[in-house]
Amino acid sequence: MPLHARRRRTRGYNQSERIARTMARHSGVPLIATAKRIRHTKPLTVSRSAAERTAIIAGAFTAVNADAFYGKSVLIVDDVLTTGTTVNELARVLREAGAQKVNALTIARAD
To answer: CB-based contacts of 8: which residues, under 8 Å, 6+ apart?
Structure first.
């Protein structure tokens, strides 16, 4: 799951990227950056309505390296799945860019 540059600078790292790098190293499956977060967004919390979450995240991602994943399956790696809004938006962008199938793997689920 890509972070906006501002959030990455504040945090100092992207935890989802670290998880994905470790998975790639152990599995032998290459890690390819497939998207970039182009818009800084407010945090998507469970207290927001589904419509609010969708509006906040809309247009936040753009596909990169589409030639590398066109017609292939892509795995989105995220640390925590809360409502699924962010994963759904990123999956939509990747499918529109040519991914044949998009799956998501999260380490934890917030309730």
So the answer is: 14
* Run of H or E including 80: strand 73-81
How much is the pTM? 0.90
pLDDT, tens only, 24-34: 999 999 999 99
Strand partners, 63: 35
Residues 6+ apart with CB under 8 A from 19: 77, 79, 107
Q: How far is CA 9 from the centre of its chain?
A: 17
pLDDT digits (tens, 9 = 90+) for 32-83: 999 999 999 877 766 778 888 889 899 999 999 999 999 999 999 999 888 8
110 has which bridge partners?
none
DSSP assignment of 11-49:
HSS-HHHHHHHHHHHHH-PPP---EEE-S------TTS-
